[in-house]
Amino acid sequence: MVTLREPVSRLAIVRVVRSVIEAWQSESLEALGALLAADAGPIEGRGHGRGSLTESWRQRLHAHEYARLAGVQLIREERIEYWSADELGGSSAPASPPDMRPDEILVRVPIDRTRVAGERLFGDVLLLVLRRENGELRIAAYGEVEDAPPL
Question: Is the overall model pTM greater than 0.85, yes or no?
Answer without folding.
Answer: yes
